[in-house]
Amino acid sequence: MAEKLMKFSDAVAKYDPVIGLEVHVELSTETKLFCPAHIEFGGEPNTQLTPVSLGLPGSLPVVNKTAIDYAVKLGLALHCEIAEWSQFARKNYFYPDMPRNYQISQYDKPLNGNGYLDVELEDGEIFRVPIERAHVEDDAGKNTHVGGADGRIEGADHSLVDYNRAGVPLIEIVTKPIEGAGARAAEVAGAYVKAIRDIVRTLNISHARMEQGNMRADVNVSLRPSPDAPFGTRSETKNVNSFRGIEKTIIYEIRRQAARLEEGKEILQETRHWDESTQTTAGGRVKTDADDYRYFPDPDLVMVHVTPEHKAELAAQMPEMPRERRNRLQAEWELTDLQMRDIINADALDLIEQTVAAGASAAGARKWWLGELSREANAKEISLEELPITPADVASVEALIASGKLNDKLAKQTVSGVLAGEGTPEQVVEKHGYKVVSDDGAIEKAVDDALAANPDVAEKLKSGNMKPMGVIIGAVMKATRGQADAKAVTAVVMKRIKG
């Protein structure tokens, strides 16, 4: 039964939303956090295992130093206080994808704490998100439910478990309650998670591909009558793995909770799940408090010691951060603030930079990624980077235009071919025989035929009225299957009407 929802504008006018985010970032180390098992996305199930990642009796964990270094770098980027001494703890719970029946995480002595991240919203406003901690832990395995709809547990007749992911190193970044966002709470959340994605990619510590599960977020939402009232009861929507999903989850939960409060109903402190197909959240289990996990220091692991000297060494390795990079590229590409915000809002900065690096001009790269390709991604409701076209492909199309081999229309057809899986731009051009007709004789004949077929247009052009020029150009393009050079066509038309 569908839950009742309040209109979003009414909900945020009547209640003050408070959100919190727990972003899980899978680190791109070669081996797992506590054992030498190799990590490879999409590998054969249950092949990337050791006795440690299976939790077999007698196996002992050893900390992956690279994972700790990665976590320190992220802590520095998030303006966190880096603890000289931190500790791993056992988080006890029972679930089929947790082979040890406990997760090795950090509890009261995390590596990184008390940080913040300033994020830029669509209109350029800067919003500061407070960060409580960014701690290190290992991931669980993956359950696959068979027999139900869309792989969900509802209706499934059995489940399969793949332990390849068990033991993969994670950093969990936990915000403090995010207050003051109001109606922009969803936008703040989306911008924050995108900023985290940009930072971990810049640091080269994670692939951060949400569609592959190596970055995901738990989304907490609560409502209160006013900003000075105590926090309301929160829901926690687990493992949301897209930026749009995060934003839609928050909007839906605000509307759902507001409708319940309006009717005097209780808000349960529970875990929920986002259903992309129905664009709704569904209730799961009652939310467990930290005490129920029975945390205690892991007796098999010594405390982690990050010396001041090692912290300084890692700080010296820090690359240019995303905001500084954006400012530099904006200056290099001679963009206005609005133009750069359009690029950021479209999540196209990396793709445009890679396209420029492959040989395209900044203007040409921006035109494609914010134009044809952005429309294609929006129509399919996917991100730009999920489109089956690479920055190198776009740069190749630009090169074909610059060389005079393609005009704009043929270039668009070429891009469509690449998106359809027909190969590289060069292969699409060869397959369809795309080429600009520059032969003067062929163009002159097509222009003469078009003028003869449209005598009224010809007369207007001869009298100096250039408005109907497009009729002739369009007719020539049709006759040449879009392969005529528009400038050459215009030159021939002007020559004829003056002659």
Structure in words:
It contains 17 helices and 16 strands. It has 499 residues and is of the alpha+beta class. The chain has 3 domains: 8-314, no CATH class; 322-432, no CATH class; 440-498, Arc Repressor Mutant, subunit A. Helix 3 packs antiparallel against helix 4, helix 8 (349-357) packs across helix 9 and helix 11 packs antiparallel against helix 12 (408-419). One of its GO terms (biological process) is glutaminyl-tRNAGln biosynthesis via transamidation. GO terms for molecular function: ATP binding; glutaminyl-tRNA synthase (glutamine-hydrolyzing) activity.
Concise summary:
This protein has 499 residues and is of the alpha+beta class.
Uncertain runs with pLDDT below 50, 5 residues or more?
A: none
Radius of gyration: 28 Å
| Count of DSSP-assigned helices | 17
Strand content: 15-25%
Overall outline? elongated
N-C termini distance: 76 Å
Helix/strand layout:
Blueprint lengths: L7 H7 L1 E11 L38 H13 L3 E2 L2 E2 L2 E4 L9 E4 L6 E9 L5 E13 L3 E5 L11 E5 L6 E7 L9 H18 L12 E10 L10 E6 L2 H20 L7 E6 L4 E7 L9 E2 L6 E2 L2 H9 L5 H12 L3 H9 L3 H9 L4 H9 L1 H9 L10 H12 L5 H12 L5 H8 L7 H14 L1 H8 L6 H11 L6 H13 L1
Parallel strand pairs: 12-13
Antiparallel strand pairs: 1-10, 1-11, 2-6, 3-16, 4-5, 4-15, 6-7, 7-10, 8-9, 11-12, 13-14
Helix pairs in contact: 1-4, 3-4, 8-9, 8-11, 9-10, 11-12, 14-16, 14-17, 16-17
Properties at a glance:
alpha+beta; 16 strands; protein biosynthesis; ligase; Asn/Gln-tRNA_Trfase_suB/E_cat; 17 helices; 3 domains; 499 residues; elongated; Arc Repressor Mutant, subunit A; nine-stranded mixed β-sheet; 39% helix
